[in-house]
Write a structure and sequence with these properties.
The chain has 3 helices and 15 strands. By secondary structure, the chain is α+β, with helices and mostly antiparallel strands. The radius of gyration is 35 Å and the shape is rod-shaped.
Amino acid sequence: MNTIKGSDDINNALHPCVHIIDEFNHIDISSALGDKKTLRDTDSNYTYYFSGCKDFKLSDLNLPGINITNTASLLKVWPNSTKEKSVVFNYTVLGKAENIKWHKEGSMHQLIYNISNMTTLPTVKLLCDNEPAPFIKVLDTKSNQLIFSSQQACIITIHHGLSGGSIFLIMLLVFLTIYLVGGGLMLYFIRGARGVEVIPNIEFWRNLPSLVKDGLMFLLAGCKPTFVSTSESYDRI
């Protein structure tokens, strides 16, 4: 028996066909039936029709006694009476696509039809299967429990690529490492530099703060060289 306990148990997806598990994983059953309108399975006298996350017209079944104006995503049908070799059917609409709520029980994802007038909610368990042809199997006719087997019931994992900013930072770190390590090794072995002198262009890095300051002053002065305090600082600019 399935009951709704709270928002933690039920995931209200933006679309009944798609269940977002996390940032990288989701399930999409929008095309799980292929070119078929419905799948069906019979247990005892009860036949179930399942159309996935989309409703189908009951008139498509061409069964006597079925209200042709109704639609359903999960339908339960059973014979009512036999008169002169003609069978009239009773039926119950167990749920429509708009009633679907995604639920996870253990490692298995399920479609639960949240129907307010039912104490036991109809449930379709999703089985990830590599077989190309999807099918349904009735588990319990009293509680209306079924299994839906399909390749589309498998979890889809999407590996997001690196953003442009991430690529830029990686390239910057690589070039900076090559610059510092490669330049330092050359200064150490070729020129015999020691201590901080192994840092490439050490004089430039020492003078960088004052160069930045002079550059900002030059810009704030409207790029007028006369505003710079000394000719030496202007020459550095």
